[in-house]
Amino acid sequence: MIPNNSNKDNLLTDSVATASLNSSNAAFWKNDWLNVQSSLSSLRNSLASFPSSPLRIMRVSQLDADLLDSELFGTFKEQLWLLFSPQIKQTFEPELLAILHFIYRLTVLESGATYGAQLQNLKYRNEKQHWGGLQSITKDSPLTTFQKFAYIAMTVGGQYIWIRISRLVIAQGWSELSEDDPRNIFWKVLQKVENIYKTVSLLNFLIFLYDGKYSTLTDRILSIRLVYARRIMNRQVSFEFLNRQLVWHAFTEFLLFIMPLINLRKLKNLLKRKLLPESYFRSNLLDFLPTHICAICHENQSASNASAVISSKVHNPYETNCGHKYCYFCIKTKLLQEGGTWQCLRCGAEVKEIKRLLEKLVEEEEENDRTNKGKQPAR
């Protein structure tokens, strides 16, 4: 089939006409947009003079965002400390925290919000563009580049500089120098600056509780405010985390209540008797010790003192139902710890009762009397 050249020419002419028409329409709308830009800017400025309803952002959401940021940063910090030895941690702690804090705050450069703010459906906006009646009826203005970098510099760099200066002052003891020393004066200035900062932060927090705008002093200085990232959104409160915390809290309270009622030492010895063979206990008996040596004292001191046999003599002797002598304090402590029964260290018998050795006390008193008489001078 031979193509019709006239049809091709018609189609080409129509396409050229359509393209020229589109270009003319685009130029027309572009010129109109340039003409109305000045009118729109003047209209925007005039709207600022009209009263409008204030933008209400829940204070609890902003405070929860700060709390989430603190908890998340604390979790990252705990994982960071596992990578370094205590010596490196103590020496370079401010630098490591500054690096971690800087990495954590990089989300402000990317999305204009921290992790905690994103979890609360919040973001920062440039409040300088929302003065007067523009605070709740216009599109949220993003942060400027200066505001983003200034925010990171104040939250990360300011904290690092303050920690380093404080550690230097404390390490060199500038507060203990004479009153005329410049270093002591500098230390006093630091104390005043810290007190002023705390006072201003407290005032800012009180103002925040009143108007709900700037939760921190840094936000107020830079005129950045937390607003809803999506305003048309139902506030969904998840109680999953709260329920988990309540369960763990109840479980912890139960353990704190039940643990003092369980005699772990007695339970441990009971399991040892049930699981270990009888030969194990016979090999560990202390029947080779002299009778004037307390086997419990010897057992407690032998691990740390090589001369335990000399320093573990029986004091205030008490006799068990199996016929062996121990110090009263030692045998009474064992019985209390084991719940009233205990296995003798010399013979392995079960100790249930103890009694005082009065005969031994009488012999010791008589021996002391004879010693004292021998020391008296002859008349």
Automatic annotation (TrEMBL):
Pfam families tied to this protein: Pex2_Pex12, zf-C3HC4
Protein family (similarity comment): Belongs to the pex2/pex10/pex12 family.
Originating species: Rhizophagus irregularis (strain DAOM 197198w) (Glomus intraradices)
Topology with respect to the bilayer: Multi-pass membrane protein
Full protein name: RING-type E3 ubiquitin transferase (cysteine targeting)
Coiled-coil segments: 347-374
GO cellular component term, pick one: peroxisomal membrane
InterPro entries for the chain: PEX2/10, Pex_N, Znf_C3HC4_RING-type, Znf_RING, Znf_RING/FYVE/PHD, Znf_RING_CS
Major localization class: membrane
